[in-house]
Amino acid sequence: MRTIIVDDERLARNELRRLLDVYPQIEIIDEATNGEEAITKINQLRPELVFLDIQMPGKSGFEVLEALDDSVAPDVIFTTAYDEYALKAFDFDAIDYLLKPIETNRLDQAIKKLEEDQKSEGAESNPNQKVFSENDQVFVKDGNKYWFIRLSNVRLFESIGNYVRIYFESNKPLILRSLNALEERLDPQIFFRANRKHIINLRMIETIEPYFSGGILVKLRGGEKVEVSRRQAVKFKDLLSL
To answer: Which among 155, 161, 188 is positioned nearest to 176, based on CA atoms?
Structure first.
């Protein structure tokens, strides 16, 4: 598992390297000492896993993830000396959140969780699986509730941790699925990956307006507002232009 360690403290990087020595499946391919360096190296090397400090000079770990190319989506384990960022960390679909100094048993739990998630995603990804069109109907179960949904009625898919929330009519069920695996099964001419957390139905767009840093803000028929990231904005304009 190709891995990058991002931390502005040399001793912290060295200690994490030492702890990871016992995991032969972890191959540390590089290190980064600040946010800007991390963005460059992650975009170029495309690691499968990043151990990411949160508080660093310049850009924080959260800002690093927001600045990555949308096609780059490594698994992330946050490392930090502060526990007040835990809830926000999981908004970024983090595998785990480790407090420094990192304990060996917590690191072991994080690696096991990572492997379980990868097995689950591997089971989801099947090259022979059907790609759904907007006219297909799919079965969705959330708790004790069931739906048989025509995909043309779905306006938004939103990643929430290990789940995806599906927006259709007034319903918002959660399914245990990764957004990446779901994207592989949807027609890209209809369902567009707007950013790292959202896939939108292009036919459900009500309004489009410019947004910060070259991005685009779209409003969907249900009232949801979703940012099309700067890197996806060019592709978005190509899809919708004459």
So the answer is: 161
Q: Are residues 142 and 99 in the same domain?
A: no
CB 231 within 8 A of CB 192: no
**86 and 6 belong to one structural domain:** yes
Any residues with CB less than 8 A from the CB of 10 and at least 6 apart, and which? 33
**What is the Cα–Cα distance from 132 to 114, expressed in whole angstroms?**
28
Q: Which residue has the tokens 């990058």?
A: 4
Calculated CA dihedral for residues 40, 43, 47, 52, nearest 10 degrees: 50
Q: Are 153 and 78 in the same domain? A: no
Please report whether residue 34 resides in a domain. Answer: yes
Q: How far is CA 134 from CA 175, 177, 183, 200, in A?
A: 19, 19, 13, 12
Residue pLDDT, tens place only, 188-204 = 999 999 988 999 999 99
Question: Which residue has 């840093």 as its token pair?
Answer: 213
- For residues 8 and 97, membership in a common domain is answered with yes
Domain match, 165 and 226 both:
yes
Same domain, 71 and 105: yes
State the residue range of the domain holding 207. 137-240
For the segment 10-26, the average pLDDT, to the nearest whole number, is: 95
- pLDDT-above-70 percentage for the chain: 93
Q: Is the pLDDT of residue 125 over 60?
A: no
